Amino acid sequence: MLAIEQLAIAYGPHTVVKEISFALAEGQIGCLVGPSGCGKTTILRAIAGFEAPAAGVVRLQGQVVSSVNTQVVPEKRKVGMVFQDFALFPHLTVADNIAFGIAKLSKADKAAKVKALLKLVGLPDLGQRYIHQLSGGQQQRVALARALAPEPKVLLLDEPFSSLDAEFREVLARDIRTILKQLQITAVLVTHDQFEAFAMADMIGVMQLGQLQQWATPYELYHRPASRFVADFVGRGVMLPGTMLDPQQVETCLGIFQQRYLPETKAGDRVDVLIRPDDIVHDDDSAIKATVLDKSFRGSHILYTLALSGGEQVYCLALSHHNHAIGEQIGIRLDLDHLVLFPRSHGV
Ligand SMILES: Nc1ncnc2c1ncn2[C@@H]1O[C@H](COP(=O)(O)OP(=O)(O)OP(=O)(O)O)[C@@H](O)[C@H]1O
């Protein structure tokens, strides 16, 4: 449905998007995350037709809509957009805002469509309100309905939830995902918030300095980050120093761990092992003890920051009835499904 192939975009002498490729099938939701200025919005603008590529191709439904030689105008692309600031018209009612992009339809068709969209986004009775009479979340639902009214094939969402409370953001992201899946709309979301990306996306692209570091499912990104940058950017975790005993075993202060054969490593190599909070299990019977440095209550779980005997710090996500005080020693063990290793960065 949407394919980006070797896309490069430059502003004057600065190439801000560098040979990026990814694809989404019909109804799939992709998400671009990365630090500020890494080129996420520029990619959305290229898909919408507002930026021309310096190299590469954008395809929609198999057809080239952007290349060095081709640039289909935005109105002809069947691409809808939802922005961070909603860009709703304050002097129009909710219903008129939604009908804005479907002026060509008959009055009856327009009314029927607006009614159906209001129902779809969960605001069936608010058509006659004005925008200032709505909450931020309701306004964002109206912005979504307005973007969906012309029946786009692809929907682009640029930080659509960033002005909403963190807690509410995830709920709205899940609701919008359900709506997009119901309509089988292909969508690309740009966000700073990885939890929002996890809640919404089938595929996530992590960008850095105009390059796509990894394009993968949320599960793969979290558990098999392709680079140290992705490992640091996605999810919480620490790098625990380790030494390779052979290409299949690594020794750390938490024990010796087996892993799949890594031909590029040899005995004696120093590595960093990625340890996520859910890799460390609280276990009173374990001989390995750690001191609670900090704790953060998360409802069902507590996120502990622990100091190991050698001074290294790790996180541990424990069920919240395992309630321990700061300064207390608790037993832990490492429960790794697979190891993620990177060459030691500082040569320590
Ligand atoms: N119209 C423009 N002219 C020149 N440079 C631009 C223009 N628009 C964006 N840039 C630059 O291109 C780079 C990528 O910008 P872009 O807005 O795509 O980043 P982003 O990842 O969306 O950032 P943010 O998360 O802060 O919104 C930045 O260095 C930005 O300063």
Q: What would you call the structural class?
A: alpha+beta
Helix content: 10-25%
Question: How much strand?
Answer: 25-35%
Q: What profile does the largest beta sheet have?
A: 6 strands, mixed
**What is the ordering of alpha helices and beta strands?**
EEEHEEEHHHEHEHEEHHEEEEEEEEEE
Q: Given the structure, what is the number of helices?
A: 8
Spatial sequence of strands, sheet with the most strands: 6-7-8-3-9-10
What is the 3D shape? globular
Mean pLDDT: 90
Poorly predicted residue ranges: none
| Cα end-to-end separation | 48 Å
Bound molecules: adenosine-5'-triphosphate
Tally of DSSP β-strands: 20
Q: What is the radius of gyration computed over CA atoms, rounded to a whole number of angstroms? A: 24 Å
Quick recap of the structure?
The protein is of the alpha+beta class.
3D structure, described in words:
- The chain is an alpha+beta fold and about 350 residues long.
- The protein contains 8 helices and 20 strands.
- The chain has helices spanning about 40-50, 95-100, 105-120, 135-150, 165-185, 195-200, 220-225, 230-235; strands at about 1-10, 15-25, 30-35, 55-60, 65, 80, 155-160, 185-190, 205-210, 210-215, 240-245, 250, 255-260, 270-275, 280, 290-295, 300-305, 315-320, 330-335, 340-345.
- A 6-stranded mixed sheet has the order 6-7-8-3-9-10, sandwiched between helices.
- Strand 9 (about 205-210) and strand 10 (about 210-215) form a beta hairpin.
- Helix 5 runs parallel beside helix 6.
- The protein is globular.
